[in-house]
Amino acid sequence: MSKKRRVFDIEFDAAALEPETAAPVPAGTETEARRGPMATAIGENAAALADRQAAEAAIRAENDRLAHAFVALKKSGLIVDLIPLEQVRMTKLTRDRVAKRDPELDELKASIQAVGLSNPIRVEEVDDGVYELVQGFRRLSAFRELHAETGDPAYARIPAGLMARGARLAKLYQRMVDENLIRRDISFAEMAQLAWAYKREETQEELDVGEAIDLLYASAGRQKRSYIKHFAQLMRLLGNDLAHAEAIPRALGLQLVKMMEEDAGLAGRIRAVLANMPDRDADAELALLRDVTKPAKPGAVHETGKPATKPPAATTAKTTIRLARPDGLAKCVASDGRVEVQFARDFSALDRRKLEQALRAFLDSLEV
Predict the structure, then answer these.
(1) Per the database record, which ranges form the ParB-like N-terminal domain (predicted)?
(2) CA torsion angle for 231, 235, 239, 245 (degrees, to 10)?
(3) Which terminal residue of the chain has fewer beta carbons within 10 Å of its beta carbon, N or C?
(4) Are 158 and 51 in a shared domain?
(5) In terms of Cα–Cα distance, which of 206, 249, 250, 210 is closest to 232?
(6) What ranges in 8-136 are assigned the alpha helix state H?
């Protein structure tokens, strides 16, 4: 006896059998109501995925923009961070500073203690956690002394502008030079020494020291570059024998160079005299150099051993100027190597920096 097979009639909705590739149906419509829950979920996921991809693309574009902006700021040294003192080294660049301690460093330390460091140093990142100093030798020295003296952790790290790696050596030197050109205490001898150091470290034998000066001090005036070139010759002839080259004033340095160019043996005689005074201070060294340039009476002999035949030059000429000021009359007397101002005011009571700025502006105006 055979069993009968049961047949069930199943009715399918024609709309449910439509391809899934059909366009999305707005929610709430009659057709949407007929769609199954799986088709609705797939549609919603596709829309969410598209939105997420668009958001991620926008984020990537913004990150790229910020990364380029960060690199540009870093190249300019405008990204500032607190760098531990022990992570800053000074080996890549020859500093345009003498090795002796700056006597005015105490003023800078007092200013840092009172108001903090208003101008960060600049460093180049040379390795992970290692930075090379580019600008700010005095500021770094002040922080190191303050930390050693006080033990205050606030001085264990110094604000520093971070420069990107790989800057050309010439660019780093120019950054250091441009900052120090506006300083009141950088000497012509120190600038000349830096030019020689740059010539050596660039290993460009064909680079003349005059060309090095024109490159490094491009922002300085032509006359100032000329003075630096004269001092470069002074340092070539006497640099290794001078203990206080930074103390040599411009006029004395220029005159020494002129005299040594006229007398080829003078440099050797000066070196011999300097060698006999190993413990001399700056004043003693300047006195000796000035003695070399002084006109002597006929028959007299300088310490350098060269007979002097020229009579002393007359130095009696004077120029007197009276200036009417709102607070009184100022009398100025100018003579050879001297300018005197007589005015009813206590100049010693003025702020030292303000007075030095005024004097520097006065002397600079005479060079134009």
Answers:
(1) 86-181
(2) 10
(3) N
(4) no
(5) 210
(6) 30-34, 37-75, 105-115
> Considering 279, 298, 313, which residue would you say is the last residue of a domain?
313
Q: What is the CATH number of the domain that holds 113?
A: 3.90.1530.10
User: CA 135 to CA 133: how far, in whole Å?
Assistant: 6
Same domain membership, residue 327 and residue 288? no
Tell me how far apart the alpha carbons of residues 245 and 242 are, in angstroms, rounded to a whole number: 6
* Cα gap 16→52, rounded to integer Å: 29
∠ CA 246-361-230, rounded to 5°: 40
Residue 159: other Cβ atoms inside 10 A = 17
| Domain hosting residue 306, numbered range | 187-313
Chain CA centroid to CA 153, Å: 25
Residue 315 per-residue DSSP state: -
Q: Which of 77, 71, 69 is nearest to 175 (CA)?
A: 77
**CA nearest neighbour of 108 among 160, 64, 145, 152:** 145
DSSP 228-286: HHHHHHHHHHHGGG-S-GGG--HHHHHHHHHHHHH-TTHHHHHHHHHHT-TT--HHHHH
What does the pLDDT profile of the chain (368 residues) look like in tens digits? 555 555 555 555 555 545 554 555 555 555 555 566 776 677 777 777 887 888 888 888 888 887 777 767 766 666 788 999 999 988 776 554 555 666 678 888 888 998 888 888 888 888 778 888 888 888 898 999 999 999 999 999 999 988 777 666 666 776 666 666 555 567 888 888 888 877 776 655 577 888 888 888 877 788 888 999 999 999 999 988 998 888 899 999 999 999 999 998 899 999 888 888 888 888 889 988 998 887 655 554 555 555 444 444 444 567 778 777 777 777 888 877 788 888 777 787 788 888 888 888 888 787 74
How far from each other are the two terminal CA atoms of the chain, in whole angstroms?
130
What is the rounded CA–CA span in Å between residue 120 and residue 158?
8
